[in-house]
Design a protein that fits this description.
By secondary structure, the chain is of the alpha+beta class. It is 49% helix and 12% strand. The strands form two sheets. Strands 1-2-3 form a three-stranded antiparallel sheet, covered by helices on one side.
């Protein structure tokens, strides 16, 4: 079903993105279609087309995931994956995916196809609605992509997302090493101020004691000087 949707959409449009796989680009309508792995970000168009054909959100996402998984699995094992009536996906240089455009010959009439393989053509109104919905519906957040619905989780491929729960702090902000140095500097400054204050206080006490020591002999000499004239008379 997805291949049929892909073929019909590219008959009247220039490109179609298959999420996490790449983009099919029409260079010459009916003659040349190329594939690029550089553009693989989900723009929602393919999912919207499948939904326009009657699929639900999860069913459409699962259909796309299965399609991508089957292609990658075949290419990674050196096999080809044939898109009936459209072309072949096969291993390319440097572990890439190559595409060879092989459209269905015009001599083959639709009457020769099995009845089970016949599908209703895409209606322009549904295609326009699907494209409009793809660009107006809200984007799926990163957290939703990392934790997909259980019904489609088994279809994901590639490396699992890294989990950083072990590095998260709970109930408090982690202390920085700079705070420790700040506290040490503050304590050192307080100790220095206390030492200076103690030195000034000790100097003042010594000076006061020295002044008191000097004043005592002078006070003792005054009575003796006053008694000497009386003894001479």
């Amino acid at each position: 079903m997805l291949i049929h949707t892909l073929i019909q959409y590219l008959e009247s449009h220039r490109r179609l993105v298959v999420p996490q796989l790449g983009t099919f680009i029409v260079k010459e309508p009916g003659r040349s279609v190329v594939f690029s792995e550089l553009l693989k970000r989900d723009d929602g168009v393919l999912r919207g087309l499948l939904r326009a054909e009657g699929m639900g959100e999860l069913e459409a996402a699962g259909e796309i995931d299965r399609f991508v998984f089957e292609i990658r699995h075949a290419v990674e094992h050196g096999s080809e994956y044939r898109l009936e009536g459209f072309g072949v996906m096969k291993p390319g240089p440097n572990a890439t995916i190559a595409f060879v455009y092989e459209p269905q010959p015009a001599s083959e009439s639709p009457a020769q196809e099995p009845a089970a393989g016949k599908r209703q053509p895409l209606q322009p109104e549904k295609v326009a609605e699907a494209v409009k919905t793809a660009f107006t519906e809200p984007r799926v957040s990163t957290s939703a992509k990392m934790n997909p619905d259980p019904s489609v989780r088994g279809l994901r491929y590639g490396k699992p997302p890294k989990n950083t729960d072990a590095y998260r702090y709970v109930d408090r902000v982690p202390r920085r090493r700079a705070d420790r140095f700040i506290w040490i500097a503050v304590i050192a400054a307080l100790l220095a101020v206390a030492a200076i204050a103690f030195g000034l206080w000790r100097d003042a006490r010594e000076k006061q004691a020295e002044n008191e020591y000097i004043e005592l002999p002078q006070a003792a000499e005054l009575p003796s000087a006053a008694s000497q004239p009386e003894q001479l008379e």
